[in-house]
Amino acid sequence: MGDEGKLCYFESHLKYQIITREVTLQRKSKKSAWGINVSNIIARLDDGLQLYLATVQSLDEKGIAKKMGLKEHDQILEVNGKCVRDWTSDDLLAELTECTSVVIVIITVEDRAVTDLFLMASREHDLSYLWALRKLVKLSICNIDFSGEGLDISTITTLLQELIVTNCSLKCITQIKGLSRLKSLKRLILTHNSLTDLHDKTMLKLKELTDLQLGYNLIRSFPNVVTRMEKLEELSLIHNQISLLPDEVVQMRSLEKLHLDNNVLTELPEYVTLQLPQLRALTLENNKLKPNTRSTQQTRSKFYYKIGLDK
């Protein structure tokens, strides 16, 4: 893809950034009404936690809130710099009652209905608002450093089907907090990080996962946990340091595509071609495979993709 193509790709995704608005309300005294009625809907999560979705239900026509730009159906995200995600109606009322000046961050009904979001380093602050996007289906994150505290998606919607976290300095998959909650996730891309292994307990909870891409990491051993992921159809481990395929690979009865380019494999076991009849794409370029072995000959005759062999 040329530079022009890359530019178009990013422009098409940047429109999915989270758009928020800041509204400042001021009144002369605590006795003056704000002129706003808020409904607080409880969203219960699978793990027993719950979120409070504070939404503007109605506004007084001549009230302060309406004059300053609040609109019906706006969702309140912050009040005076404090996230209202865990606030009950009483908490919100107390904050509004005690102040003569409040700064409210809101998101409109249209913007919180986004289904596809792409975040880069310049939009890092948007991560704190992911909980408000209850219809999100695809989330892409690139070039944000998670080597320290990690990525927290523990309150993101479980409707998410595709998660891409690339070039984010992840060292272990447990740095993605809340990943195991995503029971609808079908595609997971964690390329260009510093992963060395997977976490079995986390991965086995992703029961709907069909596509897993772990290329350009520091994985030295084939992650056996993927052999127990029954619906996995495509697996990419390119540009790692894998030297051996385990016998358990034959358990991957749904696997259709396996990409192992740029590793340090020296041998391709026969069972890869003999016992995985559903496999229709296998890439092994730039490994250390020996030529003229029975398994490599079978592989070259069966698959269209090139097989890299030592000369």
What does this structure look like?
By secondary structure, this protein is an alpha/beta fold. Helices cover 14% and strands 23% of the residues. The chain has six helices and 16 strands. It has helices at 3-14, 64-67, 89-97, 200-203, 271-274, 294-302; strands at 21-26, 36-44, 50-59, 75-79, 82-83, 101-107, 116-119, 138-142, 151-152, 162-166, 176-177, 187-189, 211-213, 234-236, 257-259, 281-283. The chain has an eight-stranded parallel sheet with strand order 7-8-10-12-13-14-15-16, with no helix packed on it. Strands 1-6-4-5 form a four-stranded antiparallel sheet, with helices on one face. Strands 2-3 form a two-stranded antiparallel sheet. The radius of gyration is 25 Å and the shape is elongated. The protein starts with a helix and ends in a 9-residue tail after the last helix. 29% of the residues are buried.
Calculate the mean pLDDT score and round it: 87
> Oligomer, anyone?
single chain
Low-confidence stretches: 1-15, 300-311
- Shape, principal axes of CA atoms: elongated
Q: Major β-sheet, in short?
A: 8 strands, parallel
- Structural class category: alpha/beta
Number of strands: 16
Rg over CA atoms: 25 Å
- What portion of the residues fall into strands of 2 or more residues? 15-25%
The percent range for helix content is 10-25%
Strand and helix order? HEEEHEEHEEEEEEEHEEEHEH
Termini distance? 31 Å
- Specify the number of helices: 6
Strand neighbour order, sheet with most strands: 7-8-10-12-13-14-15-16
Brief overview:
It is built from 6 helices and 16 strands. The N terminus and C terminus are likely disordered.
